[in-house]
Amino acid sequence: MATDYYAVLGVPRDASQDQIKKAFRRLARELHPDVNPDPKTQERFKEINAAYEVLSDPQKKQVYDLGGDPNAGPGGGGAGGFGAGFGNFSDIMDAFFGTASQRGPRSRTRRGQDAMIRLDVELSEAAFGTTKDIQVDTAVVCTTCSGEGAAPGTSAQTCDMCRGRGEVSQVTRSFLGQVMTSRPCPQCQGFGTVVPTPCPECAGDGRIRSRRTLTVKIPAGVDNGTRIQLAGEGEVGPGGGPAGDLYVEIHELPHPVFQRRGDDMHCTVTIPMTAAALGTKVPLETLDGLEEVDIRPGTQSGQSIPLHQRGVTHLRGGGRGDLIVHVEVTTPTKLDPEQEELLRRLSKLRGEERPIGEFKPGQQGLFSRLKDAFNGR
């Protein structure tokens, strides 16, 4: 009976290449002869290697899935041998010794980090947009060494330990024979070069901190938490590398009269009951200037009067929100004798000397309304 390679690696038949590779590496570390010298373990190790050789090769895997012999034909080796039977040699090395290091020296020049600052704006500035100057403290290219990191008149030199390769090799012995592994050079930290005389201004980093003034355009309609991206205005990278981005986060300051809700603005005007009954006009200083709010006769406490297109500009698209004026009617608490007499005469004329009152449901508190909403009433 043919060997079930999927069962050998412990993966389903529809396993992806990534799942197959992970299963092989896990088993290879567990069954490595240096870890477990049991002869049965070595036979098991050969089995998982043979299984991985087939399942990691798309062509052999296809032949195997169709019931054919994946090791037949030109170039096909034995199922359990070492050498060609080890499949992808780099995967074996990764399983035993960890992921191989990247070949070649590392670059001293790297991209800088992004930065973010918070900017306070007034409601009118958020509504109509504005331009502001901001000061930022970020890393900039060192003017003394121009980002090279070496003192003026000097330069970086090739590392004499790794000869500029950025890595050193080490030969170890294993059951496979001599195995060569590489690691970053400890003298140059993998850069391939060393700086004998670092720049005294930046200490070899190629950048220094500096305060700059930038002009930021605030678009109309921004709100709390809106972030404006300034590309390339963040931190300069090590070695004078390209700068990251600067993000300006908007914080809208509270307004003494208006409260913003989305692109609409709300305010409350308090008027006496006589003005509510007879009607009046109340001056209001809006973001667009002085306007009069028309209080119609018979206005009740809690009514709203919309002033269209007097709110915040829509950030995306044209138009503006509305300004909603909420009316609050006050009842006098202290009356002189003449005022009391006038009110009594008014109540008599209106037949309201002993009002019965009208009771009806629906005047509930917030929590009662929420409870009814959840109960489906």
UniProtKB/TrEMBL annotation:
<feature type="binding site">
    <location>
        <position position="185"/>
    </location>
    <ligand>
        <name>Zn(2+) 2</name>
    </ligand>
</feature>
<dbReference type="Pfam" id="PF00684">
    <property type="entry name" value="DnaJ_CXXCXGXG"/>
</dbReference>
<feature type="domain" description="J">
    <location>
        <begin position="4"/>
        <end position="68"/>
    </location>
</feature>
<feature type="binding site">
    <location>
        <position position="199"/>
    </location>
    <ligand>
        <name>Zn(2+) 1</name>
    </ligand>
</feature>
<protein>
    <recommendedName>
        <fullName>Chaperone protein DnaJ</fullName>
    </recommendedName>
</protein>
<feature type="repeat" description="CXXCXGXG motif">
    <location>
        <begin position="185"/>
        <end position="192"/>
    </location>
</feature>
<keyword id="KW-0677">Repeat</keyword>
<feature type="repeat" description="CXXCXGXG motif">
    <location>
        <begin position="159"/>
        <end position="166"/>
    </location>
</feature>
<dbReference type="Pfam" id="PF00226">
    <property type="entry name" value="DnaJ"/>
</dbReference>
<feature type="repeat" description="CXXCXGXG motif">
    <location>
        <begin position="199"/>
        <end position="206"/>
    </location>
</feature>
<keyword id="KW-0862">Zinc</keyword>
<dbReference type="InterPro" id="IPR002939">
    <property type="entry name" value="DnaJ_C"/>
</dbReference>
<comment type="similarity">
    <text>Belongs to the DnaJ family.</text>
</comment>
<dbReference type="InterPro" id="IPR001305">
    <property type="entry name" value="HSP_DnaJ_Cys-rich_dom"/>
</dbReference>
<dbReference type="InterPro" id="IPR018253">
    <property type="entry name" value="DnaJ_domain_CS"/>
</dbReference>
<feature type="domain" description="CR-type">
    <location>
        <begin position="129"/>
        <end position="211"/>
    </location>
</feature>
<keyword id="KW-0963">Cytoplasm</keyword>
<feature type="binding site">
    <location>
        <position position="159"/>
    </location>
    <ligand>
        <name>Zn(2+) 2</name>
    </ligand>
</feature>
<dbReference type="InterPro" id="IPR036410">
    <property type="entry name" value="HSP_DnaJ_Cys-rich_dom_sf"/>
</dbReference>
<dbReference type="InterPro" id="IPR012724">
    <property type="entry name" value="DnaJ"/>
</dbReference>
<keyword id="KW-0235">DNA replication</keyword>
<feature type="binding site">
    <location>
        <position position="162"/>
    </location>
    <ligand>
        <name>Zn(2+) 2</name>
    </ligand>
</feature>
<dbReference type="Pfam" id="PF01556">
    <property type="entry name" value="DnaJ_C"/>
</dbReference>
<comment type="subunit">
    <text>Homodimer.</text>
</comment>
<feature type="binding site">
    <location>
        <position position="142"/>
    </location>
    <ligand>
        <name>Zn(2+) 1</name>
    </ligand>
</feature>
<dbReference type="InterPro" id="IPR001623">
    <property type="entry name" value="DnaJ_domain"/>
</dbReference>
<feature type="binding site">
    <location>
        <position position="145"/>
    </location>
    <ligand>
        <name>Zn(2+) 1</name>
    </ligand>
</feature>
<feature type="repeat" description="CXXCXGXG motif">
    <location>
        <begin position="142"/>
        <end position="149"/>
    </location>
</feature>
<comment type="function">
    <text>Participates actively in the response to hyperosmotic and heat shock by preventing the aggregation of stress-denatured proteins and by disaggregating proteins, also in an autonomous, DnaK-independent fashion. Unfolded proteins bind initially to DnaJ; upon interaction with the DnaJ-bound protein, DnaK hydrolyzes its bound ATP, resulting in the formation of a stable complex. GrpE releases ADP from DnaK; ATP binding to DnaK triggers the release of the substrate protein, thus completing the reaction cycle.</text>
</comment>
<feature type="zinc finger region" description="CR-type">
    <location>
        <begin position="129"/>
        <end position="211"/>
    </location>
</feature>
<feature type="binding site">
    <location>
        <position position="188"/>
    </location>
    <ligand>
        <name>Zn(2+) 2</name>
    </ligand>
</feature>
<keyword id="KW-0863">Zinc-finger</keyword>
<dbReference type="InterPro" id="IPR008971">
    <property type="entry name" value="HSP40/DnaJ_pept-bd"/>
</dbReference>
<keyword id="KW-0479">Metal-binding</keyword>
<keyword id="KW-0346">Stress response</keyword>
<keyword id="KW-0143">Chaperone</keyword>
<dbReference type="InterPro" id="IPR036869">
    <property type="entry name" value="J_dom_sf"/>
</dbReference>
<feature type="binding site">
    <location>
        <position position="202"/>
    </location>
    <ligand>
        <name>Zn(2+) 1</name>
    </ligand>
</feature>
